[in-house]
Amino acid sequence: MRLLLTLTLLGCSLSIFAQTASLRGQLQDPEQAAVVFANVALYRSADSTLAKVETSDEAGVFRMQNLPNGEYYLIATYVGLPDLRQD
After folding, report:
1. Distances (CA, A) of 86 to 18, 24, 47
2. Do the strands 72-78 and 81-86 form a parallel or antiparallel pair, or are they unpaired?
3. Which parts of the chain fold into alpha helices (H)?
4. Which of 11, 39, 64, 82 has the highest CB neighbour count under 10 A?
5. Beta strands at 50-55 and 61-68: parallel, antiparallel or unpaired
6. pLDDT in tens, 2-14
7. Can you list the domains of the chain with their CATH numbers?
């Protein structure tokens, strides 16, 4: 059986004054269990440069703050589960 890693974006907020963004999400496996200590990498869409890397916590939650405005894609990786790409 093929396992899928599900990404649930809980919120994305933009600060107008500082011109930075924040991203928060939660990683869950197909059984809705938290995917703990997964690597979450954010890349700039324009040139695929790495913008930020975080690790999910005990609840599968990750947070990225002070992101410059722009377009990004996210790749979450965890041993034993397929990589997840979210544009």
Report:
1. 25, 13, 16
2. antiparallel
3. none
4. 64
5. unpaired
6. 444 555 544 444 4
7. 6-86 (2.60.40.1930)
Max CA distance (Å), the chain: 48
Instruction: Give strand pairing partners of 77.
Output: 39
pLDDT tens by residue, 54-77: 999 999 999 999 999 899 999 999
Strands (E), 1-87: 6-15, 20-28, 39-44, 50-55, 61-68, 72-78, 81-86
Mention every residue, 6+ apart, whose C-beta is less than 8 A from residue 13: 21, 22
Torsion sign (Cα): 4, 38, 74, 82: negative
